[in-house]
Amino acid sequence: MKSYRALLLGLAASAVVAALLGGCVVVPGPDAYYGGSVLVAPPAPRVEYYGVAPYPGYIWLGGYWNWVGGRHEWVGGHWAAPRPGYRWEPHRWDRVGNGWRMRPGHWARERR
């Protein structure tokens, strides 16, 4: 009888510990952002399925990882009208020292 009670007590304790740890989420601490650089590398880009352009000539501006609230957050892509004389330079993360810095996407004038 004692071993059965010990077994039940052990199972109950394990269930409580599992329930408490199940709610744990590991996020970068406040020191993950330092001097304009993020110390956590961005994840691999997500695959986006964008279908057919809503209007002829529109181009797809792909999504990117943004740094929000101490973590990387995906921002989905969207269709945009082209700008004559410009080309789209997508968002990108550059390695800077021990960290990463995001370079926002922008329209760059085409060289002639």
> Distance between termini?
88 Å
Report the principal-axis shape.
flat
What is the radius of gyration? 24 Å
SSE ordering: HEEEEEEEEEE
Could you report the average pLDDT, rounded to the nearest whole number?
80
Number of strands: 10
**SS strand fraction:** 25-35%
Total of domains: 1
The total count of helices amounts to 1
Could you explain how this protein is built, in words?
The chain has one domain (28-109). β8 (92-96) and β9 (99-103) form a beta hairpin. It has 1 helix and 10 strands; from the N terminus they run αββββββββββ. It has a two-stranded antiparallel sheet with strand order 1-2. It has a two-stranded antiparallel ribbon with strand order 3-6. It has 112 residues and is an alpha+beta fold. It is flat, with a radius of gyration of 24 Å.
Write the layout of secondary structure elements.
Elements: H1 2-22, E1 33-34, E2 37-38, E3 59-61, E4 64-68, E5 71-75, E6 78-80, E7 86-89, E8 92-96, E9 99-103, E10 106-109
Antiparallel strand pairs: 1-2, 3-6, 4-5, 7-10, 8-9
Gist of the model:
With 112 residues, this protein is α+β, with helices and mostly antiparallel strands.
Which features does this protein show?
single chain, alpha+beta, two-stranded antiparallel sheet, 1 helix, 34% strand, flat
